[in-house]
Amino acid sequence: MDALINDIEIIKAKTTKINDVDFDNLTFGKILTDHMLECDFKDGKWQAPKVVPYQPITLDPSAKIFHYGQSVFEGMKAYKDADGTVWLFRPLDNFKRLNISSKRLAIPELPEDYFMNGLKALLKVDSDWIPRNEGSSLYIRPFIFASGKGFHASPADEYKFIIACAPSGSYFSGEVKVLIEEKYSRSANGGVGFAKAGGNYAGQFYPTQLAVDKGYQQVIWTDDNTHEYIEEAGAMNIFVRINDTLITGPTSDRILDGITRKSIIELAQSKGIPVEVRKITVSEVVEAAKNGSLKEMFGAGTAAVISPISGFGYKNEDYDIPEMEDAYASFLKKHITDIQTNKSEDPFGWRYKVE
Amino acid sequence: MDALINDIEIIKAKTTKINDVDFDNLTFGKILTDHMLECDFKDGKWQAPKVVPYQPITLDPSAKIFHYGQSVFEGMKAYKDADGTVWLFRPLDNFKRLNISSKRLAIPELPEDYFMNGLKALLKVDSDWIPRNEGSSLYIRPFIFASGKGFHASPADEYKFIIACAPSGSYFSGEVKVLIEEKYSRSANGGVGFAKAGGNYAGQFYPTQLAVDKGYQQVIWTDDNTHEYIEEAGAMNIFVRINDTLITGPTSDRILDGITRKSIIELAQSKGIPVEVRKITVSEVVEAAKNGSLKEMFGAGTAAVISPISGFGYKNEDYDIPEMEDAYASFLKKHITDIQTNKSEDPFGWRYKVE
Ligand SMILES: Cc1ncc(COP(=O)(O)O)c(C=O)c1O
Ligand SMILES: Cc1ncc(COP(=O)(O)O)c(C=O)c1O
């Protein structure tokens, strides 16, 4: 493997910004490391990736990313354990999902070794940037966008694949209350909701702002046809616990197949927690909140890890979800982060050592 | 007005590319003029727009356009008549729609004078680029994208508004056959389909490629829930003529409120053509094609003007729409382009003189 890592050309930054960084007070995704991976698609193929100093991107104003939203991305994290070893979590799943997203957006798929070896080379060069503090990690953002030119509404002939990294703390600060959406939607049947396509996120900003103005932090999306089924949140899949059963909706072409979600399903099952993967109606959640059987609700995603939800709004009513002892959320969060950060055994083989 | 036009700062290009351009053989949207309008949103407000030499844009890799598809655009055309006077077509409608799109995408709305005066100043500086040839025009692309930084999935704090122009010939070359879509969708109820949001276009590329591979030029989108209603095409609204009635679907939050569409409705009505604005089912179109009452089908949009459709595919069957004499498409196209290019009276007040 090492030979392949070394196959990646490295152009080192002349200076480092790391001394300006307060690693004890990291926010999310604002401070970027010294390097990035860069790889261009042109002349019909992906060119060799390179690690280069983190630097601005220069594009023609007619580059298709500015006009037609042709872009996809991924979100991953790297962790450093007590021995200084660097770990990723199921990175091949991110790679595969990136290509699934690319295909739906008519972006050429990436070779696996460009992604994996490029990522590993970058993490080696920027290894000092990987936080060791509890609750912090290096957030990794692989993304691809259309750099090819022209106003014709058709796929570009050139693309850029970049991996940039940001040492980050937690995604949410404070409690998370959600609004169950009755009007706006995130995705269509037969649309791009299952892809991590840029446009899926911008479309959520306005409805989310309306929810924030009403005192919520996030929107829970429902299906666009009836608004009767709970789908997912902005960048998290959703779990509810009714009595002792943990329930999450099935994935579909409207919903992202989250890596945290599927890991939680497996982890919970292995711990003897009853898990159901089935459609969740808004009315059963409201009913359960009313009769006290709704014990927990939480979001699950790479950025937010597991985020307990303290209440939800629906049809102008607010429902509290009181914090409980022995919550599944804290139990599962501890188990999954212990695996991620090499503090426990990894019976599932999810952890991936970067060497 | 002139004083305001002159309020726009102009920085002229040192050289011109115009002598390299073959105005008799223009394609669509590939050759850009010498200048562009540029206007930044920062510190909470839109800064004064400037006309500057057409030049590359430099952005941080964490600029939100690369990650979250936060962008909107417009498409307009400028025409030069025999006297050299420059005309736009209903430009205020484009301005208003841009702000409608921006609002849905959580992008700050633009002041009208920045848009209109900026556009007029740009057209003045690049006036020599406006083609006079029949069938050609200056395609104008106003667009706004998120230039603000950070990986948090929330609206950016900085944006760029740019207008770039490309002397262009026709959008389609050759006949247009369409595929009525049964699986994929363009937009969701409660989504962003009515906005000219970048992400709406990238999502169409893959299904369109599948259609192109089968020998069609465009997809006709249907509703994402039942796929039983005809909605619109990639960058055109759709009209069908059954017997002598011209029918187009109503706009909705899934469909772009096209300026060409609404102009055609008004124009046709004023010429005594019976027009119906109502939902169109795929089955009635198939039925009409079978029994010979489907006389015409055409797309309508700024880029494509009026594009007759020569046939459609649905459920693995192909249906021809034979060319007819006295087609509404050619009649309406002639009338609308005569108005646009100042060859006829403009009883509707649609034409807008640029001075
Ligand atoms: C829309 C959406 N849903 C769910 C998730 C969670 O997926 P994962 O656990 O793979 O990070 C994300 C974020 O990645 C997302 O963007
Ligand atoms: C999706 C879509 N529908 C319809 C149209 C036609 O609208 P207009 O006539 O305003 O150009 C366009 C292009 O502008 C479009 O992008």
From TrEMBL, chains A, B:
Provide the GO MF annotations for this entry: branched-chain-amino-acid transaminase activity
Annotated protein name in UniProt: Branched-chain-amino-acid aminotransferase
Q: Which UniProt keywords apply?
A: Amino-acid biosynthesis, Aminotransferase, Branched-chain amino acid biosynthesis, Pyridoxal phosphate, Transferase
Q: Which SUPFAM superfamilies does this one have?
A: D-aminoacid aminotransferase-like PLP-dependent enzymes
Pathway participation: Amino-acid biosynthesis; L-isoleucine biosynthesis; L-isoleucine from 2-oxobutanoate: step 4/4; Amino-acid biosynthesis; L-leucine biosynthesis; L-leucine from 3-methyl-2-oxobutanoate: step 4/4; Amino-acid biosynthesis; L-valine biosynthesis; L-valine from pyruvate: step 4/4
Q: Does the keyword Zinc apply?
A: no
Give the organism the record lists: Snuella sedimenti
Q: Which domain of life is it from?
A: Bacteria
- Say if the entry is tagged with keyword Metal-binding: no
Stored InterPro entries: Aminotrans_IV, Aminotrans_IV_CS, Aminotransferase-like, B_amino_transII, BCAT-like_C, BCAT-like_N, BCAT_family
**PANTHER family to which the protein is assigned, alphabetical:** BRANCHED-CHAIN-AMINO-ACID AMINOTRANSFERASE, SUBGROUP IIII AMINOTRANSFERASE
Q: Which NCBIfam families match?
A: ilvE_II (TIGR01123), PRK13357.1 (NF009897)
Q: Which GO terms describe its biological process?
A: isoleucine biosynthetic process; L-leucine biosynthetic process; L-valine biosynthetic process
Function of this protein?
Acts on leucine, isoleucine and valine.
EC number from the UniProt entry? 2.6.1.42
The similarity comment for this entry is: Belongs to the class-IV pyridoxal-phosphate-dependent aminotransferase family.
Look up the record and name the cofactor or cofactors this protein needs: pyridoxal 5'-phosphate
- Enzyme class comes to transferase
